Amino acid sequence: MIHVDTLIAGATLVTMDETRRVIADGAIAMTGDRIVAVGKRAEIEPQCIARERIDGRRFVATPGFINGHVHLTETLIKGFIPEHLPFDEGLNRWVIPLYQGHTPEEQAIAARLAVLSMLRTGTTTFLEAGTLIAFDAVAEAVADTGMRGRIGRWTMDRAFAPDKDQTALTDDAIAALERDLAAHPDDGRLIAAWPLLVGHNTNTAPLWQAATALARQNGLGICAHMAPAQDDPDWYLATFGKRPVEWLADLGVLGSHLSLVHMVHVDQAEVELLAQSGTHVVHCPAAALKGGYGATSCGLFPEMAAAGVNLLLGTDGGDTHDLMRAGTAIAGLFKDARRDTALFPAEAALEMLTVNAARAMGLAGTIGSLAPSHKADIVLHDTNRPEWRPLHNPVAQLVWSADGRGVHSVWVDGRRVIDNYRCTTIDEDRLLAEAQSAAEGLIARSGLPRQSAWPIS
Known about the structure:
Blueprint: E1 2-14, E2 22-31, E3 34-40, H1 41-44, E4 48-55, E5 59-63, E6 65-70, H2 87-100, H3 104-120, E7 123-128, H4 135-143, E8 148-151, H5 166-183, E9 191-193, H6 205-218, E10 222-226, H7 231-240, H8 244-251, E11 258-262, H9 268-277, E12 280-283, H10 285-291, H11 295-298, H12 301-307, E13 311-313, H13 323-338, H14 346-353, H15 355-360, E14 378-382, H16 394-400, E15 407-412, E16 415-419, E17 422-423, H17 428-446
Parallel strand pairs: 1-4, 1-5, 6-7, 7-8, 8-9, 10-11, 11-12, 12-13
Antiparallel strand pairs: 1-2, 2-3, 5-14, 14-15, 15-16, 16-17
Helix pairs in contact: 3-4, 3-17, 5-6, 8-9, 13-14, 14-16
């Protein structure tokens, strides 16, 4: 007999373990921050003396999902930026000024709202997009939410104006990264800093190399935006005579520590460099669809998968942080684009949300699976809902029928952070009121017009 903290008995388990077992009438036992037993209920339950027993018969259990790319502080502007804008205009006239217009308090509120959105829809771990301005305020704001994440500041150093001191800009950026890593080390704590970069054409070769050295020396990762639009490869070809991934390869900064985000406008030679180096690629389907990036017409994501590139998914901006919707999107986009229903089946989509993402986070064998010795990051999906009934194939239905609204309970590190659809670590009503007030103040200060095709009176 073993004494455990919590036993979930009777659930259908989508384990995502090495053999990808799906266990009907299963059981999971956890003690402290770890899973200690997984299997058939008839085998596990008699072995356990549980402090708390949960009747899991109405639930499908999965590992916690892992969001490979999320802008924590974009939540206050959801629905405000017009969707018809060209990429450059939307980014430079709307997104960046609104980012930079946040006060530290507003950034903190926005980040907590993003965390709440993720936890409520089954995400237990995230990789921030490297766009935090009030970095310390955000780190403090999310530290007590119970979520696991890697965060980074808005790091760019390229001197686009001739009067800027390039050396000073680069030195300042490196020093800021070093301060963040020292203040928030990745030493087992839930929220830690990584040397994240904005990407595109905003980072110089010395900064790329310095950030890579920091990552490799400390066992950390890097992510950076690249090639959502044709602008990035055009700029690199015009400036260096090389495509972006070729330029990064020549710098020696590709590798398993690096996740490149979006990566819509790449060619086959770049795909091969990604595969050879072990560099991960984060696809954000919702951003691609809303932004008209051309992912379905130009994107080589099926070719990346065939070459062995590790693909994972992100929600990107603040419109939605329901990662299950990204799983549905990736499972369908390229079936339609290539007229091939074999592309990215539901099983592949779930791998992108779990084990693939754990690998990119440097946490393979620790999160992403329901397996003994793994972290107790567990999600219970409520099947007593119309989108779940009748229940035939839980894997297919997780991707094609369900979404995050059916998430009933979530544990991170063995701590129950969602219980009966409510967060246990955040005062939801207070946060939602704060977010509304903060957003109205931010928009008013920005001077940007409210645009709506239908009048709002």
